[in-house]
Predict the structure.
Amino acid sequence: MALYNPAAVTVSASTSGTSTPTTIPASISNVAILTANSNRKGATIWNDSTANLFIEFGATATTSAFTAKLSAGGYYETPFNYTGVISGIWSGANGNALVRELT
């Protein structure tokens, strides 16, 4: 029977050297926050709006089917190495989402 040896496990940190800023205007219709990007290491989203922002990992966000709800002024970091599409929809069309994609 083999024993687990934690010293034999190699962990490599994923690093990013580039941050690409994008501003997405608030909309009460579904919008793309980020397109799929296999080079993405991470992303941040700040809801610079007085309305709630509902984000979805996939092509269509709704106010009833979403991954995360960002209140006014809310901040979100994507899970480590999620590279798929991120969509969003607001409860009111004012303000923006300030997005940073890390590659």
Q: What stands out?
A: The chain has a mean pLDDT of 93. Strands lie at 19-25, 31-34, 42-48, 53-57, 68-70, 75-77, 86-90, 96-102.
